[in-house]
Design a protein that fits this description.
Length: 289
């Protein structure tokens, strides 16, 4: 079992620490040994749980997993990830929230950080008057890094077992096809960063308020995603509340989605959750319904 497990009912999913086949353990050990011997092992971000994310993403094919991790490391240098982590300041966050809300907010019943994105509120013209696609992508990477180093460890501690993925709600209510086409380059780059550089971080993904024209939007998005990612996506219309409340405690879900949460100043800017002791840390330990 991984260290720090206090939940007596925790059963790791296949391919995770504590539930590896003999062959998978052998591949993991070989993976770690090879990159150590080749001199590009970075202990602080290449623990076994991380190596296993890359292995699962490539179905435990050692060569493909190694190629993927090496490419991610090269991308980190090109994109300037370390500098972003240390120095990035998204001063326009409150203004951007008016035109493209994207935020982490508390956790679901399995302890995963809840992430909400309101693509339907996107006002691309107003958005790019106050920020840029480059800064949006830098913010995305900053949040991915914080997700791994702050949010997941805090959520894991709160529920007593490893939490390795997020629960996402993508709200398409009011989405405009013309606006989507104007932002599709950003969406494609964001999807690529997510699945190529931060693999196996998606646990649950709900697309809600999907309009009649969503099949057109989906036809653009789907080719950017691998089959494993697509299999985790649940496309819902406007009758989404029962499905969300089956996975997310009502006190974690913003009131506009059928929950009871009404954070002071708005949920989208509260950053409430176990990772933020002043705003919601430990206020509930999620349990299975």
């Amino acid at each position: 079992m991984p260290e720090g497990v206090t939940d007596p009912n925790y059963k790791p999913l296949p391919g995770r620490l504590g539930n590896l086949t003999v062959e998978q353990q052998h591949v993991l050990t070989k993976f770690r040994t090879q990159i150590q011997e080749e001199g590009w092992f970075v202990p602080e971000r290449m623990d076994d749980a991380t190596l296993l994310r890359f292995l699962r993403a490539r179905k435990f094919d050692l060569d493909k997993s190694k190629t993927m991790l090496k490419a991610a490391e090269e991308w980190r240098k090109e994109f300037g990830v370390d500098d972003i982590v240390q120095n990035f300041d998204f001063k326009e966050k409150a203004e951007v929230d008016k035109y493209y809300p994207q935020y982490y907010h508390k956790s679901d019943k399995d302890g995963r950080p809840l992430y909400i994105e309101k693509l339907g509120k996107l006002d691309i013209k107003a958005l790019y008057q106050i920020t840029s696609q480059e800064r949006q992508l830098q913010r995305l990477v900053f949040e991915y890094e914080k997700f791994l180093t702050d949010r997941l460890p805090a959520c894991s501690k709160a529920v007593g077992h490893p939490v390795e993925t997020s629960c996402t709600i993508l709200d398409l209510g009011g989405v405009s096809l013309s606006n989507f086409y104007r932002v599709k380059d950003y969406v494609a780059k964001a999807a690529s960063i997510g699945q190529d550089r931060y693999p196996e971080c998606m646990g649950k993904f709900y697309i809600i308020n999907a309009p009649w024209a969503f099949s057109t939007v989906w036809s653009f998005i789907k080719p950017w995603l691998d089959e494993v990612t697509v299999s985790k996506i649940d496309i819902l219309g406007s009758s989404y509340q029962p499905k969300l409340l089956a996975q997310i405690p009502k006190e974690s879900l913003p009131k506009e989605y059928g929950g009871t949460c009404e954070c002071e100043g708005g949920c989208s800017l509260s950053d409430a959750g176990p990772w933020n002791e002043s705003k919601g840390a430990g206020e509930q330990v999620p349990t299975q319904a």
